[in-house]
Write a structure and sequence with these properties.
Pfam families: Mito_carr (PF00153). InterPro entries: MCP_dom_sf (IPR023395), MCP_transmembrane (IPR018108). It is found in: Membrane. Its main location: membrane. The protein is mainly alpha-helical. It has a single domain (about 5-155), classed as Mitochondrial carrier fold (Alpha/alpha barrel), CATH 1.50.40. The chain is about 80% helix and about 0% strand. It has helices at about 5-15, 20-30, 40-65, 70-105, 115-130, 135-155. The radius of gyration is 19 Å and the shape is elongated.
């Protein structure tokens, strides 16, 4: 599993240069299982993110079919827009689980999902739970979704 590496990366991003020291203390205190904290939320995030992506992609492809006499530029723009929209809907749908995963991985104490959610809502409100980091995620995944969809549609036409 790649989750222990993800936990180390996330801990260093959130807690800076002291992140790995803090993670070692957390491992000594609670055992190596802390390297897998956030696995459930990560799984839900992936599972919940896939359906909206494919639903949006398929819906937009049917709703806005490629025109037979479309220029190369129009074909690329259509694919890019569909890819960006699909990725954005997926990110919006699954962001809450990413927020929970990161908090579970990087908290200094071992906390349950319920405790983490309650703490996040108390500090940042429900909106914080749903939208924290979302604009960056939409931008980065949107660009990736655009490139993927352009290449996928190009290869599919060949």
């Amino acid at each position: 599993s790649i989750l222990p590496i993800d936990t180390c990366k996330s801990t260093m991003q959130v807690n800076g240069k002291d992140g790995l020291k803090q993670l070692r203390v957390k491992i000594r205190t609670n055992g190596a299982g802390v390297l897998y904290h956030g696995a459930l939320a990560s799984g839900f995030s992936t599972m919940i993110g896939h359906f909206p992506w494919f639903f949006t992609y398929n819906y937009l492809n049917e709703r806005f079919p490629r025109q037979k006499n479309a220029t190369h530029k129009e074909i690329i723009c259509r694919s890019a827009a569909i890819g960006f929209a699909s990725s954005s809907i997926s990110d919006i749908s699954s962001n809450m689980f990413r927020v929970i995963k990161i908090n579970r991985q990087t908290s200094l104490e071992s906390q349950s999902y319920r405790e983490l959610m309650r703490e996040i809502v108390q500090k940042q409100g429900v909106l914080g739970l749903l939208t924290r980091g979302l604009s960056t995620k939409i931008l980065s995944n949107g660009i990736q979704g655009m490139v993927f969809t352009i290449l996928f549609d190009y290869l599919r036409r060949q």
